[in-house]
Amino acid sequence: LFLGQMPREDLFSKEAALKNQAKRELANGLEKDSIYKLRLQCFSRGATGILGLARAFRVMDDDGSKTLNLEEFKKGIIDMGLDVNESDIEDMFKRFDADNNGTINMTEFLVKLRPPMSASRLDIIDKAFNKLDKNGDGQITVADLKNVYSVRDHPKYLSGEMTENEILVNFLKNFEAGAPNPDGIVTKEEFDNYYATISASIDNDAYFDLVVRRAYKL
């Protein structure tokens, strides 16, 4: 199995089921907690839903403070095209602005937004990331991947359709779908955000473990 080529069909069907379930739940007319509603909105986008929102927030964090004010927070959600009303957005913001200073910590917010994951799932995600992050700088780039994976058996490499670089860039694009500014760099947070949604589509811890181990030859 080449990097990232998990049992794809099975994974796609699980992701599709998660999307449909989220859409049905959003449409059922029942009262929902505002953060849960936003999570469902993200799930209805599939594996890159929470990842896309995190990236939209990052783009607005000009000063690198990892905090957002209400306007930035609102803009991130609107830029993603998520269907959340004004009062929900304000409710979420208030809940996270614990000291009432007008800003929230976006990392804390995203951790709350992600579905909870068991320690064993977090552990296998960490192992996969650490294997890819060859130079240990906390991010994955094409240069890291070249040191970890050989593309020689990749069908598109063998057929001459794609170069080594194109195949590795393509893999990184899994984590950048819908990104306003794809940069070819995947941070640990982005990796976690991506697998949090994959995790939500898989009920069984052992199967999740298998999917990640097979994808990254762990």
TrEMBL record:
Q: Which SMART domains match?
A: EFh (SM00054)
Tell me the CDD domains matching this sequence: EFh (cd00051)
List the keywords (alphabetical): Calcium, Metal-binding, Repeat
Task: Please name the PROSITE patterns in this protein's record.
Answer: EF_HAND_1, EF_HAND_2
Superkingdom of the source? Eukaryota
Q: Which PANTHER family match?
A: CALCYPHOSIN, CALCYPHOSINE LIKE
Q: What is this protein called?
A: EF-hand domain-containing protein
Species this chain originates from: Drosophila rubida
